[in-house]
Amino acid sequence: MAALAGAGGFGVVALDTVRQLQSGLPEPEDALTYTRDGSMTIKASDGSVLQQLGPATRESLALDQIPSAMVEAFIAAEDKNFYEHSGVDYRAIARATLANLSAGEVVEGASTITQQVTRIVFLGQERTLDRKLREALMAHKMERELTKEQILERYLNLVYLGSGAYGVGDAAWIYFSKPVDQLALPEMAMIAGLAPAPSEYSPLVNPDLAKERRDIVLERMAEAGFITAAELADAKATPIELKPSQPRNLISQTPHFTSYILQQELPKRVSPEVLEVGGLTVETTLNLKWQQAAQDTVAKAVERYGRGQRFSEAAVVSIDPRTGEIKALVGGKDLVAGQFNRATQAQRQPGSTFKAFVYTTAIAAGLSPYKSYLDSKFIVDGYEVKNYSPKHSGNLSMRDALARSINVIAVKVLLDAGFNPVMETAKRMGIESKLIPAYSLALGTLEVNLLELTSAYGTLAAQGKHVEPHGITRIIDRFGNVIYEAKFTPEQAVDTDSANIMTWMLRGVVNGGTGGNAALRGRPVAGKTGTTDAKRDLWFIGYIPQLVTGVWLGNDNNRPTAGASSTAALVWRNYMAQATEGMPVESFPQPNLRGDRRGSIKAERIRPRKMYIGKTGEGSDPEEGSSSRTRRSSEAAEQQRSPSSPAAREAAPATPAEPRKIRNSESPRSTPASTPDEPSPRPQVPDAPVESAPRSPESRPEPVRVERPRPEPVEARPEPPP
Hints:
The protein is of the alpha+beta class. It contains 22 helices and 17 strands. Helix 14 crosses helix 16.
């Protein structure tokens, strides 16, 4: 009785243990979306795989995509009673136990396919009694809640088959360089034979042992009635003929973009702990067609133009301005993962492309694009602003000065707008790099990267709304849970009227200015060229309503080129002509050019200590020789005393205005908010080199539509301040 009572007590404890284990078992449906720890899959916007790292299944197949002979080979080799048991094959356990005892070693296993799936997905490979019990319980639960077909499909996609092959699709490619549906029977049997010991039975390591194992699988298929005796004989007589290949998607074909995702963006979206565990699927914004076009365009640009114009690198970034999604990103001509990314990591002077932010600020402060400025010799606080041409153009409107990239007028517009408003506008539009208040700010002598510059121009394309540029839309963990989803809200960085006016002005750059090579047939294009000191950087940033693209050409060692930013405009067009194939043509909004338009921000006009404003025909080179600064200051003062002179009209302060917030629609008022209540602090004379503008083009020429780059003037370093 005591013995019975003891046995009964043990039974109750055992039953409680089983119930506790059952209550802690995971959900079998998690197996349907499982990916292994340590793996990483990166996908393009259309779902195609860009790269897979770690122990990932690179070709996941539906069961009906796998040949029936392959399915039968695995059932015969691994679990001949698969369709009969309910997760655990107790007859197989008894048979294997006897065989192993008889042999004195483990010669036969008894784990079912269902048990193998539970180990792969949920339990790992540790050999303990507790794990074996949980494995059996989980296998039963899986059989109750999933179909045999679901279990078999997951197994055939997850089973490790050696040499980096996870699943039968990977194995077919790695060993035979074939899709699974083109494998012959002997090849299928060889793959099925790898499952118990992939390294030991690998035909790449032990071809004789691999053939022996293959033949065992074929014999089991015949015993199960899956193949005939004749098929068995033919298959066994067939030698193993391998044609090895690397795992698919191991090497990224879009390395600059995938490296950017892995190194720069992914760490911002998930924690280090999540990254360490891995098993992630990263869905991205990349348009694979555009990316391939961008990679091809960059390679051809360096090949065609690089030698003659002495630049060795190029970079392209393309963004949807309405969503901030990065559609293409190429950081250099060589497609090597992990190399220096010139689109995101290179900090370069933007040259005249930065003028867009100066003019945007002035327009947003209420200035008219028709406001006239005098292009003449100009020295401000000892800093002489130089154009490319030694001759000046006289009075020009802001629109024409931007189209011709006149440096003198850009700095004068900066004086009217103010340092802080310009820097704040640039940052709202998407410039993240550090900006410093200096007169050369107007000429782009501070450093930015191509991604942020392109994104900032996208703000104008999106009618003043800025969305943070990003390359990831969703991140999914190893069990199919969405752990990150991009939800970026556009922010009104510039009022709509000002953005539309700037687009109209930047269209003038393409239609009748320095950016003619960027013209697209039948599409409106807006953009700006930029060239830095000694032509070290050649830029074009341009956009259509649906897409903004930036191009940079130059050398990593900062060596001067012999090129021109018109070449960057041509490279831009070469890419955009491909990207816009089949894309509907959209027009830019009509600008509000009424004279009663009000400003949406407040200017903070700069009051220099000294200014020298030369005559219209006066050259850029100093003519005073040994003349003192006092003399130059008195000449400037003399000109300013004449109320009818252009210099006096420019230098005279405007009526102060109250600070204003950005807004898109207001009731009109006559005076633009372009002057501060009190002057800004006087800046230090900048040490940075200044970019000069290109030679003035003829009045409103037709857009250039030639394949050969059009020469553009050098934007050279100025003489030291007097």
